[in-house]
Amino acid sequence: MLRSLAPALFVLVWSTGFIVARAVTSHADVQLFLLWRFAAVALLLGIAATVGNARWPSRARAFQHLGVGAVMMGVYLSLSFWAIAQGLPAGIMALLGALQPLLTAAIMLARGRGPSSAAVWWGLSIGLLGVVLVLLPRLENSHFAIANFANLAGLLAIAALTMGTLGQKHLANDDLRAAGCLQNLGAGLVALLAVATIGALRWDGSSALWGLLAWSVLITSILAQGLLMWMMRHGAATHVTALMLLVPPVAALLAYAIFHETLSWLQMTGFALALAGVVLARRANPVSAD
Fold first, then answer.
1. What are the DSSP calls for 63-94, one per residue?
2. In terms of Cα–Cα distance, which of 23, 166, 163 is closest to 81?
3. What is the pLDDT of residues 127-160, one digit of tens each?
4. CA angle at residue 145 from 197 to 85, to 5 degrees?
């Protein structure tokens, strides 16, 4: 049951992260928000691991978990939240996230373990084209330029997420509660450094802010990241990260539901292409563990 529901649930929950990032900027400094988030998640997972008598990783593997968490969550979220706070539209950040499958496949190909079928590349390319069509109006209205610091931060964030996700494959078999606790501790260290350097102590304490924090801790962090770690342990990295292509279209649909943003026929066509690309990539590179 989990194997069939996990991909769809992950895409839906992960997509809300971009909506939260946009909403937080009105209530708090995003780096301080992330520090609270990582600390709360580490505490909750640490308690769950202790109460459940989970087996903690060895010291060497614990440091590896800290490093992976620092890169995959700490650097990725600190940079992406900062980019959105500096004016990069959440939709553009979601589009940059869609580059992750292609970057993952390129890295694995360079290491001699790339996709085994040209259909995988076709699937990823078609999916990326669909994402571009979905967010094309946003691109046209936001004067997207790679030289802009916010856009550069977004690209670096996706590179960090890709490297951290690949590193996750080498940490299989460790208890998810213990691993999650350690990885959020690593991410928290990055957020602490970000608060001290580029952040500020701005926190309005509103009910909306606490609600956003609760959602980020319980849903976006514990549920979504738990699903990501579980899927990375039960499938090929390219196979799993192809799901990222669906995040921008879903984020666009959420923006329509929450902010009443309409979708044009071009965007609906892009959504269909993104879905078709993911299906093609998954069927062309089947994994027995799925």
1. HHHHHHHIIIIIIHHHHHHHHHHTT--HHHHH
2. 23
3. 888 878 877 776 665 555 554 677 778 888 888 8
4. 35
Residue-wise pLDDT for 52-111, tens only, equals: 999 999 999 999 999 999 998 999 999 999 988 887 777 778 777 777 766 776 676 666
Give the whole-angstrom CA distance, residue 243 versus residue 101: 8
CA distance 163 to 237: 11
Rounded Cα distance, 232 and 239, in Å: 9
pLDDT at 112: 63
Rama region for 206: left / alpha / beta (φ>0; ψ in -120 to 50; rest): beta
pTM reported for the whole predicted model: 0.80
Whether the Cβ atoms of residue 19 and residue 90 lie closer than 8 Å to each other? yes
* Residues in contact with 110: Cβ distance below 8 Å, sequence separation at least 6, in sequence order: none
With residue 34 as reference, give the H or E element that holds it: helix 30-51
Q: Which tokens go with 17?
A: 């992260």
> Is 14 buried (19+), middle (13-18) or exposed (0-12) by CB count in 10 A?
buried
Distance between CA atoms of residues 265 and 31, nearest Å: 37
DSSP of 259-286: H-----HHHHHHHHHHHHHHHHHHHHS-
- The tokens for 248 are 């921008």
Give me the amino acid identity at 171: L
Of the two residues 289 and 51, the one the predictor is more confident about is 51
- CA distance linking residue 202 with residue 181, whole number of Å: 26
Least confidently predicted of 77-86, 221-230, 242-251: 242-251
- Specify whether the backbone of 205 is left (phi greater than 0), alpha (psi in -120 to 50) or beta: left
